[in-house]
Design brief:
Outer membrane efflux proteins (OEP); 11 helices; two-stranded antiparallel ribbon
Length: 457
């Protein structure tokens, strides 16, 4: 519906009222909404997130990264490097700036339009002047601003989720890399023992004291050990490169060092008596879906408001003629008749989108409960497994090795039996390392399941 009015007083009144309503919302915030992301990150993982919007901020981050890389990286150091240096995370933070710009744009008054026309008919010249204002945008501006505000809040929540997800991935990559280093060292020890056994077997065959079959067995052990070292080397390289990517490192930065071994198993596993309720209250993905559903409910109200009236303009006109001293004033009314489209399709679409969001939220809640239960079960079972390795398997292999050493000293067993026992002891220790690694991975998954959707490589 297009409407031209001659009342400048009406236009002025509408403009003044709108300025009062929207004037406080039409400016950018000091931190671009990143302060809440920083607060969430600090409260959940105790580390700092940073958005480099200036060269000075980027330079300070690079200096901090260099300081951390100058020493063996702890797991928290590695996560801090990722939060400061991962460019993909910085790209996700840029969405905050885009969303805030949309919010500010929606909060500002629409620009008025000036029109000027000149026409001639014979000696008569007509000049038309107009000042028009989009009244529909003006009246709906608070609603549109509310929509953009909710979108901005959702973007802020997604930025926090991206930050915590990167932190979780980096923690897991750090545990994988350290465990891979440690496993490679033990596999190399197995290879040394196998080489020694194969060399001794070859000498005994030459002396005629051993059969070729026994020699072939030792050669097989040595070949398997060499293959395991090659696999462990490849696994170490892959684990280290994944950690490097997550931390955003390149060039000389990739020469970072890691601790020689994984952290020790905690004395006891953490207890979570009401873990499902805890997850429901603090998971960021569920909070984002709730906010989205509430926003869609309010958007549905907007769709119903605009189902018929979607164009409304107010303006003043003034026409003058060259052959008359007076000025013509008046108005022209044009109505859009909702004969074919009453806006029902738009409302139906909004309702369907809202119900879609409701069901997505319900399904996400079901999945979140299952994910946190699974994560906690994995955490507890992996803790029990590591403790069994530490308290039963490894000490038992050590006692067996000590007894075999006594038997070898008494010449009751051969050196090959002693070497085979050494290999088995190292294999048991390597199994303990794998179990300890899996425990720390399970703990990382549990921590992530309590605040967001777990990320599996």
């Amino acid at each position: 519906m297009t409407m031209f009015m001659t009342s400048k007083r009406l236009a002025g009144t509408v403009l003044a009222a709108s300025a009062l309503v929207l004037g406080g919302c039409a400016s950018f915030s000091a931190d671009g909404g990143f302060g809440e992301v920083q607060q969430i990150t600090k409260s959940r993982i105790g580390l700092d997130a940073a958005w480099h919007k200036t060269d000075a901020e980027a330079s300070a981050a690079r200096q901090r990264v260099a300081e951390l890389l100058a020493k063996p990286l702890s797991v928290d150091d590695a996560v801090q490097v990722a939060l400061l240096n991962n460019r993909g995370l910085q790209a996700s933070y840029a969405e905050l700036g885009i969303s805030e710009a949309d919010l500010v744009q929606a909060s500002r008054l629409p620009n008025p339009r000036l029109s000027f026309g000149r026409s001639k008919r014979g000696a008569e010249t007509e000049i038309d002047r107009g000042f028009h204002f989009d009244l529909t945008r003006l009246l709906l501006a608070p609603l549109v601003s509310g929509i953009e505000t909710r979108r901005f809040e959702q973007t802020r929540g997604l930025a926090a989720q991206e930050t915590l997800s990167l932190a979780s991935q980096t923690r897991k990559a750090w545990f994988m890399a350290v465990a891979a280093d440690e496993s490679l060292r033990y596999m190399q020890e197995v290879l040394k023992a196998a080489d020694a056994g194969e060399e001794l077997a070859a000498r005994m065959v030459q002396a005629g004291n051993w059969s070729r079959l026994d020699h072939a067995r030792e050669q097989g052990f040595c070949a398997d050990a060499a293959l395991n070292v090659a696999k462990a080397t490849q696994a170490r390289l892959a684990a280290r490169e994944r950690l490097t990517r997550l931390m955003g490192l390149w060039g000389d930065q990739t020469k970072f060092s890691l601790p020689p071994r994984l952290p020790e198993l905690p004395k006891s596993a953490d207890e979570f008596p009401d873990i499902e309720r805890q997850a429901m209250g603090q998971r960021l993905d569920l909070q984002a879906l709730r906010s989205q559903t509430q926003g869609l409910a309010k958007n549905l109200g907007l769709s119903k408001v605009t189902r018929v009236v979607n164009v409304l303009e107010v303006g003043a006109t003034r026409n003058s003629f060259n052959d008359a001293p007076t000025t013509e004033r008046g108005y022209d009314i044009s109505l859009e008749i909702p004969l074919f489209d009453w806006g029902g399709a738009r409302v139906a679409k909004s309702e369907a989108i809202y119900m879609q969001s409701v069901n997505q939220l319900a399904q996400a809640a079901v999945e979140a409960r299952s994910e946190v239960r699974e994560a906690y079960l994995g955490y507890r079972s992996s803790h029990d497994l590591v403790r069994h390795y530490r308290d039963e398997v490894v000490p038992l292999r050590k006692r067996i090795s000590e007894e075999n050493q006594l038997r070898y000293n008494g010449m009751f067993i051969s050196v090959f039996d002693l070497l085979a026992d050494a290999r088995e002891q190292i294999t048991a220790v390597n199994g303990y390392i794998d179990a300890l690694r899996d425990f720390w991975l399970a703990q990382s998954d549990l921590q992530m399941a309590l605040i967001g959707k777990p990320v599996h490589p």
